[in-house]
Specification:
heterodimer, A: Beta-Lactamase, 5-stranded antiparallel beta sheet, two-stranded antiparallel ribbon, 18% strand, disordered C terminus, B: alpha+beta, Immunoglobulin-like, 53% helix, AP-3 complex subunit sigma-1 isoform X1 (chain A), cytoplasmic vesicle (chain A), Longin-like_dom_sf (chain A), golgi apparatus (chain A)
Chain lengths: 193, 1251
């Protein structure tokens, strides 16, 4: 079982958190902080496994993480998951994000939290791996995206226009974002097949 | 309407959307909290609007804020509103928010039941998908109960996208509503063979999760998973299955044997590291469950270790880490194979990655031996020095202590060295583990008597240099060591060189800065030292010195009397008064030393930590009964504080006996011992530890002299390294000596074990430097076996420990939504009510029901919430009305609820599959469905001695098992021969009779005992018995022409003389050859690797290579041996004929009925048949015999007809169809090699003509 999936940046700011067990908001933040503390002090060239944090589940659990550009992707799993399998899964997740956002970067995740959740929901459900085949995941995500667009129809057009105008009104927007416009590099790794 | 939409979207234009919110937060870095609180206010306004789009937008923003740590549960109702929107876009936002913040305590969840049910049955697959995803995160027991049936229906949905989600969510449903497991399980099992790989993977996932917690309930699925494992190409599925097998094998060792081969194949073939790693892991689990040192297993172990070495050597740190992790599992059972990679593991200790270093440390724990302990610890000590001030150093420290103290100090040959290491470890700054070192010091000093002298000397120097340890306040973790030092010096003060100096050191004013519990020990032990000093001075009649000592105490103790610590204060004042009294006596020139020492007389024995718990409560004792009438409430209060002290320092309670008279003392001791012996509450010394105390005292122990003239860095801190050198020299010397001795002994020693493969220098050969008695911890004599239940009672998975093979009872059906729940008494009525009710009535009744339900649940809730609900009543009703009246799926449940009649048959199938053995009697009860699993599995072990466990040579019958078998064997033969050799086999007969009796006592008609061994040849000296169905295996694989056959032969010495130099030789034929070692000629004999003392039997195995297997073979052979009696020795020989039947080339191979059918259809097989008349044995006995003697396995059995299958070592298929009616058995057989078939049938006929 996967207990939690966390994405945070190099400064420990959460970019997405998905807990498959209930915690209060405070505990969740504490877990994120603790995990960041554990993960961030590790060198680049060390292994991607960490014996669990204290808050989630304790000793039976493992943290499996990958670090891409400015982001950490951390999966907290118990002993029934294969360590290397989860590493591959993280890779699939990131590659899927990359495909869905077209060169994904931290900003995409920040502004489209809901979309990230939707993509994740096609891969992991209730803490269990649902699908590992990237093309299948993308097909489902895109089909749902299309449905959304068709529902918005004419009524959605003005809203889109407004948000475009809003973006135009803020020409300095990229300047405010001092980090994160480096896109996540997805290295080629041996995938499942 | 259109206007409304336009208005809504115009509204939206000016609302912040998620992107605006994020942007805003990023622009308000300084006052983020303030900005967010204004945003939340805005959101609250938005939520009040009617427009669902606005609400959805607000909820979306809340999801983001929830991630940042803001509690958004106040908006739960709005989330439900958004969830119930008809638009997918909004629905998805709603469900996402719900999945992020709903949990079991969220009360609005109960309002969602109908909405979710509606979404689940939506025609749009993505509505269903979103609902399932959301539900998987917030399912509650109520939701699970109400929706279980709907979800179960979805498991057979036409779209695989829905099916896989429905299958996966079932796990969550089972967890919350365990009653649903049994009705849903058959369908879940079906999904294992779903055409869609995603659904299949989901089903595997769920069953693996279930089986991991309660593996025994899922053993019957093993054949199915085995099939999946050999057919699936999806690595995810494979990994899951292989992990599952890892959990199952400990329960069923036979499964392990089946797995080894396919797993090894996977290891060889796969390129995916993740799969390789899991295979290795499971192979390890299998080998652990088999835990035997059979040669073929050592090959698998070697393969695993080899692959792991590759992983560890890889540059990828992940692989390195996992390699080490798996290695530590092998270590537990096969330490030898890991030990050879010590170099690699020590190398990993230097790795820059801490995770890897920690794993390597774990491994070291199991790699130490007497030989290398010092060396390894030395390396670790170097690391300790390097790793100053990190948590890793603390880890090192605990590991050093763990390694040294493991299994009762098994590997320590020199305790002086160990004490030195401990003393060296006290130099560590800021460690948290002072108490650990202290407890080790105490333990060693108490339990290793021989070391006390040395330990005391070391501890005295430690005490003397206490300022080094306590100088820095940050080091206070380590000052715990002083606790141990003070106690050891006091307790064993007779070993002190200069007790006066130590006494002085213990009473220094600086001691008062130590923690209270240490001071207390100081004070108490100062008193002990005082007694020793007094005795010493009085022995020398130096009354002046004695009085000075008393004065010293009287001067120094007041400091402790003032201590804030109660314990210190009390002890100090007691002792101060005592010393004052002694001083008075001294001034009157009264000899007091003896009396004072008597205060501390007696030995303290180590008591096992659990000893007290294990004292059994004697019969008739009721600990809860009052001994006296209970006192009134008010009186009992002031008795409590007692326990405070008892807990703190129990070691100091000792018998105090002030009698001077030696005789009186002895008498009293006797009386006391008597009393104790009769007193059930007294923890008696076990006989073994008693013996230890009587063992020769300290004088007899050669103590290695340390050259103390070498200046030490810190006074009293000996360098442990010198012991290493000493040890090396000593071992060298011993080795030389041993070699001499060995040469002498060599001749006698041969043939001690069958396989003399012990290493050149086994660990046992290293003798400890000192003769050391490790005192065992005391336990009460009749200690109860520990019955700790390690299962957590709160574990939700406990509820899922459900027997899945029992047929479903009516009461277990999943609750189906009905219109009148009270009518649900009989399914028939149910159906009627379903078809009849008119539309209007339906609606109203449902509403009523819903309200009723609400009411029930609301009872506990506060009134305020009810008020709130009223406010939302409108919406609620809207929700309720919007439900469509979909048909109730009662057929579905019925279908699922149909009793799975095949399950008990499955259980016996499993046995067949696993053992390829005859049907145990219990398996006959196929039609009796109740708890058949239980009985059949219980019956298996009973009949096991009669079954061939497996035909593969890696068979792991325990030696015990084998002996039993042999005994039975003998017994049988004895009977046949009418006890001709009666006098030789008294022991065998007795044992045999017993076991036969056991067999006949069984209630059900048992299988007649079947023997595997037949007499090959015998004379007055020796009997050779050969395993009838010799074990066959094919080393080279099917494509090779040459196959190998192993023949096991038991040699039994029947004479009164010693038999030795046995040589086994066979005249090779063109077809069959005995495998001889390389370099031996074709006519040389093989030496039997053991000797036989009178009356002893032993087994040897010989390998033959066979080219053609279609014909039976006969080989002539001779056994030559020397008979050695007291007077003479003579050469003897015995001729024999080895008969290789065709069935001996068959391997029991399981076959699935579908594969079997295909095989028969293929038409490649040629047929033949056989009729046997006058067979009057039960059909299952007949099948068992065929299985046992001819290595077939039953594919399918229907009444008095069965299909059987076997495969030859060269891959020929042999199929049998056995039918029986009135003592006539007809066997139709098919095989792709007619001559093989003919011979097999002939042999079958012979088997049955014998009986």
């Amino acid at each position: 079982m996967i207990k939690a999936i966390l994405i945070f940046n190099n400064h420990g700011k959460p970019r997405m958190s998905k807990f498959y067990e209930h915690y209060t908001e405070d505990t969740e933040q504490q877990i994120i902080r603790e995990t960041f503390h554990l993960v961030s002090k590790r060198d680049e060239n060390v292994c991607n496994f960490l014996e669990g944090g204290l808050l989630i589940g304790g000793s039976e659990n493992k943290l499996i993480y990958r670090h891409y550009a400015t982001l950490y992707f951390v999966f907290c799993v118990d002993s029934s998951e294969s360590e290397l399998g989860i590493l591959d899964l993280i890779q699939v997740f990131v590659e899927t994000l990359d495909k869905c956002f077209e060169n994904v970067c931290e900003l995409d995740l920040i502004f489209h939290l809901d979309k990230v959740h939707n993509i994740l929901a096609e891969m992991v459900m209730g803490g269990m791996v649902l699908e590992t085949n990237m093309s299948e995941i993308i097909t489902q995500v895109e089909a749902q995206g299309k449905m959304e667009k068709s529902e918005a129809g004419i009524a959605g057009a003005p809203a889109r226009a407004v948000s475009a105008v809003k973006n135009m009104n803020l020409p300095e927007m990229p300047k405010n974002i001092n980090i994160g416009d480096i896109s996540i590099k997805v290295p080629n790794l041996p995938s499942f097949k | 309407m259109a206007l409304k939409i336009v208005k809504g979207s115009i509204d939206r234009m000016f609302d912040k959307n998620l992107q605006d919110l994020v942007r805003g937060i990023r622009n308000h870095k300084e006052d983020e909290a303030k900005y967010i609180s204004t945003c939340i206010d805005e959101i609250k306004q938005e939520l009040k609007q009617d427009n669902i789009a606005v609400k959805a937008n607000a909820v979306c923003k809340l999801t983001y804020l929830q991630m940042l740590g803001y509690d958004v549960s106040w908006a739960a109702f709005n989330i439900v509103e958004v969830m119930s929107s008809s638009k997918f876009t909004f629905k998805r936002i709603g469900y996402l928010a719900a999945s992020q913040c709903f949990h079991e305590g969220t009360d609005v969840i109960m309002l969602t039941t109908n909405q979710i049910r509606k979404d689940l049955s939506s025609p749009n697959q993505y509505d269903t998908g979103v609902a399932l995803t959301g539900l998987s995160c917030f399912v509650t027991p109520d939701l699970a109960r109400d929706l279980a049936n709907d979800i179960m229906t979805l498991m057979s949905h036409t779209k695989p996208y829905i099916r896989k989600k429905a299958v996966l969510i079932m796990y969550k449903v089972f967890l919350k509503y365990p009653e649903s497991l049994r009705p849903a399980f058959p369908r879940l099992k079906e999904k294992l063979e779903d055409p869609d790989p995603g659904v299949q993977s989901a089903a595997v996932n769920v069953i693996c999760e279930l089986a991991r917690r309660n593996p025994k309930n899922y053993l019957s699925l093993a054949p199915l998973f085995f099939k999946l494992m050999t057919s699936s190409t999806n690595n995810w599925v494979l990994i899951k299955i292989i992990k599952l097998f890892g959990a199952l094998t400990p329960l069923e060792p036979r499964l392990g044997k089946k797995l080894i081969e396919p797993l090894t194949n996977l290891i060889h073939s796969t390129s995916a590291m993740s799969l390789l790693y899991e295979c290795v892991n499971t192979v390890i689990a299998v080998l652990i469950s088999l835990s035997s040192g059979m040669p073929n297993h050592s090959a698998s172990i070697q393969l695993c270790v080899q692959k792991l070495r590759i992983l560890i050597e890889d540059s990828d740190q992940n692989l390195k880490y996992l390699g080490l992790l798996a290695m530590s599992k092998i270590l537990k059972t096969h330490p030898k194979s890991v030990q050879s990679h010590k170099d690699l593991i020590l190398q990993c200790l230097d790795d820059k990655d801490e995770s890897i270093r920690l794993r390597a440390l774990d491994l070291l724990y199991g790699m130490v031996s007497k030989k290398n302990l010092m060396e390894i610890v030395k390396k670790l000590m170097l690391h300790v020095d390097k790793a100053e001030g990190t948590t890793y150093r603390d880890e090192l420290l605990t590991k050093i202590i763990d390694i040294c103290s493991q299994s009762n100090y098994q590997y320590i040959t020199n305790f002086e060295w160990y004490i030195s290491i401990l003393v060296e470890l006290t130099r560590l700054e800021g460690t948290r583990h002072g108490h650990l070192i202290a407890s080790q010091m105490l333990d060693v000093a108490i339990r290793v008597k021989a070391i006390r002298g040395f330990a005391v000397a070391q501890m005295a120097t430690l005490l003397d240099n206490a300022h080094l340890l306590t100088g820095n306040t940050q080091r206070n973790g380590i000052c715990e060591v002083l606790y141990a030092a003070a106690w050891i010096c006091g307790e064993f003060s007779e070993h002190l060189e200069d007790p006066m100096q130590t006494l002085e050191a213990m009473l220094r004013p600086k001691v008062a800065t130590l923690p209270g519990h240490i001071q207390a020990v100081y004070v108490q032990n100062a008193a002990k030292l005082f007694a020793t000093v007094l005795q010493k001075h009085e022995g020398e009649t130096d009354s002046q010195a004695a009085q000075e000592t008393s004065q010293l105490l009287i001067d120094r103790l007041p400091l402790f009397v003032q201590s804030a610590n109660l314990e210190v204060q009390e002890r100090a004042s007691c002792i101060l008064q005592l010393v004052k009294y002694i001083q008075k006596l001294q001034q009157k020139n009264v000899e007091v030393a003896e009396e004072v020492t008597a205060l501390f007389a007696g030995e303290l024995n180590p008591v096992a930590p659990k000893a007290q718990k294990k004292v059994p409560i004697p019969e008739g004792l009721d600990l809860d009964a009052w001994i006296n009438e209970p006192p009134s409430e008010s009186e009992s209060e002031d008795e409590k504080p007692k326990a405070v002290f008892a807990k703190e320092e129990p070691k100091h309670y000792r018998s105090r006996n002030t009698e001077v008279d030696e005789k009186e003392l002895a008498r009293r001791r006797e009386v006391r011992k008597q009393e104790q012996a009769n007193n059930p509450f007294y923890i008696k010394a076990s006989p073994s530890s008693q013996k230890v105390y009587d063992a020769p005292g300290v004088e007899h122990i050669p103590v290695v002299q340390i050259d103390l003239s070498v200046p030490l860095k810190v006074p009293g801190m000996p360098m442990s390294d010198q012991y290493l050198k000493l040890e090396e020299e000593r071992q060298q010397k011993e080795k030389a000596e041993r070699k001499k001795k060995e040469k002498k002994k060599k001749r006698e020693k041969r043939g001690k074990g069958r396989k003399a493969d012990s290493g050149p220098e086994s660990e046992e050969d290293i003798t400890p430097a000192q003769h050391v008695d490790i005192v065992t911890e005391e336990m009460p004599e009749n200690a109860l076996p520990s019955d700790d239940d390690d299962k957590d009672p709160n574990d939700p998975h406990r509820a899922l420990d459900i027997d899945l093979d029992k047929p479903l009872a009516d009461s277990e059906k999943l609750p189906v939504r009905t219109h009148r729940p009270e009518v649900l008494k009989s399914p028939a009525e149910d159906r009627v009510s379903e078809s009849v009710p008119p539309e209007t009535k339906k609606k109203s009744s449902k509403e009523k029901k819903e309200k009723k339900k609400d009411k029930e649940k609301d009872r506990k809730r506060s009134k305020e919430e009810k008020k709130k609900k009223k406010k939302h009543k409108e919406v609620e009703e809207e929700l309720l009305e919007s439900q469509p009246e979909e048909p109730v799926q009662s057929e579905e449940t019925k279908e699922a609820a149909a009793p799975p009649t095949s399950t008990s048959a499955e259980a016996s199938d499993l046995d067949f599959w696993l053992s390829s053995a005859p049907v145990p009697p219990a398996a006959q009860e196929v039609t009796v469905p109740s708890s058949a699993v239980e009985t059949s599995s219980a019956a298996v072990p009973e009949s096991e001695p009669d079954e061939p466990k497996d035909t593969e040579p890696e068979d792991t019958k325990s030696s015990k098992h084998k002996k039993k078998k042999q005994k039975k064997e003998k017994e049988e033969k004895e009977k046949k021969k009418k006890k001709r050799h009666h006098h030789h086999h008294h022991h065998g007969e007795a044992g045999g009779e017993d076991s036969v009796q056991n067999g006949t006592v069984e209630e059900e008609e048992p299988l007649p005992p079947m023997s595997n061994y037949s007499v090959l040849a015998e004379n007055s000296f020796i009997k050779m018995m050969r395993e009838d169905a010799e074990q066959v295996y094919d080393i080279q694989g099917n494509h090779q022409d040459e196959s190998k056959v192993v023949v096991s032969i038991i040699f039994e010495n029947k004479s009164d003389s010693f038999l030795k130099s046995m040589e086994f030789n066979v005249l090779d034929s063109l077809n069959s050859k005995l495998q001889r070692p390389e370099g031996a000629g074709p006519h040389d004999g093989l030496t039997v690797p053991f000797q036989l003392p009178p009356g002893v039997s032993n087994e040897a195995r010989f390998v033959f290579s066979v080219q053609s297997i279609v014909m039976p073979q006969k080989l002539k052979g001779t056994l030559t041996f020397i008979v050695k009696s007291d007077e003479s020795s003579t050469h003897e020989k015995l001729d024999f004929k080895l008969h290789f039947t065709c069935t001996s080339y068959l391997i029991t191979t399981p076959c699935y009925s579908d594969a079997y059918a295909k095989l028969l259809e293929s038409g490649d097989l040629k047929g033949s048949s056989l009729r046997l008349e006058g067979i009057n044995m039960p059909f299952h006995h007949l099948l068992a015999r065929i299985c046992f003697h001819h290595h077939f396995s039953v594919v399918e059995r229907i009444d008095s007809c069965a299909s059987m299958y076997s495969r030859s070592i060269q891959g020929h298929h042999v199929c049998l169809l056995v039918k029986t009616s009135d003592q006539t058995v007809s066997i139709d057989a098919k095989c792709d090699e007619p001559s093989l078939l003919g011979n097999v049938l002939d042999e079958l006929k012979q088997t049955f003509s014998k009986c």
